[in-house]
Design brief:
Blueprint (H helix, E strand, L loop, with lengths): L2 H11 L5 E5 L5 H9 L4 E4 L2 H10 L5 E4 L8 H4 L5 E5 L2 H13 L4 E6 L13 H9 L9 E7 L8 H22 L6 E3 L6 H6 L4 E4 L1 H4 L4
Helix pairs in contact: 6-7
The protein binds pyridoxal-5'-phosphate.
The site of pyridoxal-5'-phosphate has 14 residues, from β8 and α9.
């Protein structure tokens, strides 16, 4: 199936409010341009080096989503242009994003990553930590970041019941945070990739990050 057809079929099946992030990591600019020319603008990358090169060499109206694990010392490279950082997994990282956003006279959109899976548990906040940061005002003090939702990755397993319950936990936390945070922009629930996006959408996702289903499998 062509890249353009795959995107069109996804858009036809996803609920209309669901944003599709086409995960183009490891794929060449030619593949991205096929999607771009069909009207697609949201692309996801997980390496700072790659997203920076692609930003430099591709049309400037692309919305670049950083979806990988972000190291604090590399925030400065993506701060000038990144559209949304999905995997914010510590307060230290959030503070660094705030600082670099300020240096660029920007407010950077961020999603808080919640640790919901077994094997990914080393990255991400717990729901208690997120709620604590809201209560003590530490998020509110960062004026150059906009916390506009949450993100998570389910365990890589065939057990769909387990995946569903992990996404369900993320959605419950999303609602709890939404009530406490008082930010009208807090609206994005980023969950679901090629193998589990259908379950994620059933559990309330409104942003899916899909790579191999669109661009084919990676090396
Ligand atoms: C690679 C990646 C995806 C997309 O994975 P596919 O299985 O190719 O759809 C989604 N989210 C994150 C965080 C990724 O690193």
């Amino acid at each position: 199936m062509s890249i353009v057809t795959a995107i069109q079929e996804l858009k036809d099946t996803l609920p209309s409010k669901t944003i599709l992030v086409a995960v183009s990591k490891t794929k060449p600019n030619e593949d991205i341009m096929q999607a771009y020319e069909s009207g697609h603008r949201d692309f996801g990358e997980n390496k700072v080096q790659d997203i920076t090169v692609k930003y430099d060499t591709l049309p400037k109206d692309i919305k670049w989503h950083f979806i990988g694990h972000l190291q604090s010392n590399k925030v400065k490279y993506i701060a000038p242009f990144v559209h949304l950082i999905h995997g914010v997994d510590s307060f230290k990282l959030l503070k660094e994003i705030n600082k670099r956003a300020g240096n660029n006279n920007r407010v950077i959109n961020c999603l808080l990553q919640l640790a919901i899976a077994d094997e990914e548990s080393k990255f991400g906040f717990s729901s208690e930590e997120v709620l604590e940061h809201i209560s003590n005002g530490s998020f509110a003090a960062l004026s150059n970041i906009n916390i506009c939702g949450m993100m998570g990755m389910a365990t890589n397993t065939d057990n769909s019941g387990k995946i569903r319950s992990e996404f369900h936990h993320l959605k419950e936390t999303f609602h709890a945070v939404s009530k406490k945070l008082q930010n009208d922009d807090f609206s994005i629930l980023s969950m679901g990739m090629t193998s589990d996006y259908k379950i994620a959408v059933e559990e309330g996702s409104n942003m899916v990050r899909i790579g191999s289903l669109i661009f084919g499998s990676r090396e």
